[in-house]
Amino acid sequence: MRELAVQALSSVPRGYDLLAPKFDHTPFRTPDAVLDAVESALRPMGPFATGLDLCCGTGAGTGVLTRLCGEHVTGADFSAGMLDVARERIRSDGPPVSWVRADARALPFAPAFDLVVSFGAFGHFLPRELPGLFAQVRSVLRPGGRFAFPLVAPPRPGSRGYWALLGFDTVMRVRNALWRPPFVMYYRTFRLGDVRRELVQAGFRVELYALPEFGRRRDGSPRVCLVVARTPDGPAAPGGPTEPDGAAEPDGPGGPVSRG
């Protein structure tokens, strides 16, 4: 608890530097089940030559890219501590892997990637930052490239999950009102309706794919979907997308699975 308190009172990069050695043992690391489901959904959309794991953390998503991409994979994060752990943790038997310290809002890459993935980092971006963030992703993709990330359907109002996320966001807002530097991490600000609109305005075509591994809610909508934003130069994915009803609610908060 003391360590988490120190991290929470730091800046976002410094907080993750401190957390990095133990990050893979926390609930914040993206579960393997999510990584495997995303990999299975993306594989038919390939082949991919080059991939970027945006806000890679300790490299959980980077490992997925090493199995999907044939030529080269890059992990980018603004935390030097997380990158240090990722370098030690990820050993690729396939394409070479590079690690780059970079802010997702100012990516230092040319249009060199066929696939960009991100797992659970979007809570670190305020809604007003999404246009710039998505424009940056668009700028590093080759023609026909794809930007993919998983989204959990929003918890029903009044449910335990709803109150947990609301409580977390409230605590973070109080913390940021009283303490500097701010620690931006909000689970309820990444709304699918807003995200789809900003992706389209950035030049993407947006498709939603249900991840059947996580089942469906009582209303029949999927619990988790994969958002795939592609440049208009590329062909549609084999089989075409599905439209997950509940996960696509334009006003529902669709929080990221977790950072990793």
Automatic annotation (TrEMBL):
The keyword Hydrolase does not apply. InterPro entries: Methyltransf_25, SAM-dependent_MTases_sf. Residues 229-260 are annotated as: Disordered. One of its GO terms (biological process) is methylation. Residues 52-145 form the Methyltransferase domain. Keywords: Methyltransferase, Transferase. GO terms for molecular function: methyltransferase activity. It holds the Pfam family Methyltransf_25. The keyword Methyltransferase applies. Residues 231-251 have a biased composition (Low complexity). This is Class I SAM-dependent methyltransferase. It comes from Streptomyces levis. The lineage of its organism: Bacteria, Bacillati, Actinomycetota, Actinomycetes, Kitasatosporales.
